[in-house]
Amino acid sequence: MISGPDLTVDVGRLTLHNPVLTASGTFGYGLEYDDFFDVATLGGICTKGLSLEPRAGNPPDRICETAAGMLNAIGLANVGVEAFCRDKLPTLRARGVTVVANIFATSVEEFVELARRVDREPGIAALELNVSCPNVAKGGLQFGVDPVAAARVTAACREVTRLPIWVKMSPEAGDVRAVGRACEEAGADALSAINTIRGLAIDVETWRPRLGNKTGGLSGPALKPIALRIVWELAHAVKIPIIGIGGIATADDAIEFLLAGASAVQVGTASFADPLASKRVLDGVAAYCARRGIAARDLVGRMIG
Ligand SMILES: Cc1cc2nc3c(=O)[nH]c(=O)nc-3n(C[C@H](O)[C@H](O)[C@H](O)COP(=O)(O)O)c2cc1C
Question: Which atom of ligand 1 has the smallest separation from the CA of 76?
Fold first, then answer.
């Protein structure tokens, strides 16, 4: 039997069977995509941001298309952590899906409560702290752009969970390396980079903003060069692994992120246009590694120059 390339990667103490995950908020709770392909074949899925209580999110419209991307201001609509643990997680667990729970809160205390709650559940591989959502009035950016505040959330969660903690970086931080280093010192196991960046679109017929929330987070291909630059900077600023996110739609995109220093990647907006995007990216990375006779882990941080 001819064996395929070694696609396993280490994200700190967590070994993933391949480096391709889906990004929070762009892949539901994973099971929605099961009709398209076996989501357990991915390196993992990041859940929609979970809060303590269910959230309805922002008023419509909540998404609009822009050149080379989209703006969203969903406002973290989600079923709440209890419903997720009760209704979604058991199926994901039974199906062998690697689940990263993305959590969102408006205070350090709520983050701690969420981390404690998720820690009790078997079948969660890691916790991703969303300290960088630009579409909510409270929480979100208030933590992610400030090294002290981001570290405070990280340290407080570290005390109550044994799960690996990934902290999601904001491109809007003045010095994202300082935020990354502060989170590393506070006990983060990895940094996810990046979340969306705030933008605005206006309807020229009505003269109104195209989103109910006025501003929204820009995602998609437009974000990719910024995300790559931040991943590369972070990879040189911290010792913990980086998970690359931002405009990844093809295997070549993913490979660029690995070469820039990411140990794994997340596919986001691309799944809206093509529900099979993450599988396509994974198959393409596997084909690339096979063709070059290289293991996925040996691409990490290997950009020359
Ligand atoms: C509609 C939508 C909803 C999102 N919801 C979340 C969320 O709940 N939590 C989070 O950490 N990031 C969220 N994000 C950010 C993505 O996970 C990702 O960081 C960002 O979109 C950049 O990747 P992309 O260009 O591949 O989409 C959301 C993005 C979009 C487009």
Answer: 8
| Alpha carbons 38 and 200: distance in angstroms, whole number | 36
Predicted pLDDT at 134: 82
- At 113-157, the pLDDT tens digits run 999 999 999 999 999 999 988 877 777 788 999 999 999 999 999
Task: Tell how many helices (H) and how many strands (E) occur in the chain.
Answer: 10, 14
Q: Please work out whether the CB of residue 24 comes within 6 Å of at least one atom of ligand 1.
A: yes
Q: At residue 302, what is the residue type?
A: R
Instruction: Say which of 133, 157, 183, 289 is annotated catalytic.
Output: 133
Task: Read off the CATH number of the domain in which 268 is found.
Answer: 3.20.20.70
**Cross-strand bridge partners of residue 10:** 15
The total number of structural domains in the chain stands at 1
C-alpha span between 102 and 92 (Å, rounded): 15
Please tell me the distance between residue 110's alpha carbon and the centre of ligand 1 in angstroms: 21
Q: Is residue 257 part of a domain?
A: yes
> Is 137 a domain residue?
yes
The pTM assigned to this predicted structure is: 0.97
Q: Compute the distance from residue 297 Cα to the ligand 1 centre, in Å.
A: 25
Specify whether 157 is catalytic: no
Kindly give the number of the ligand 1 atom that is closest to the alpha carbon of 63: 1
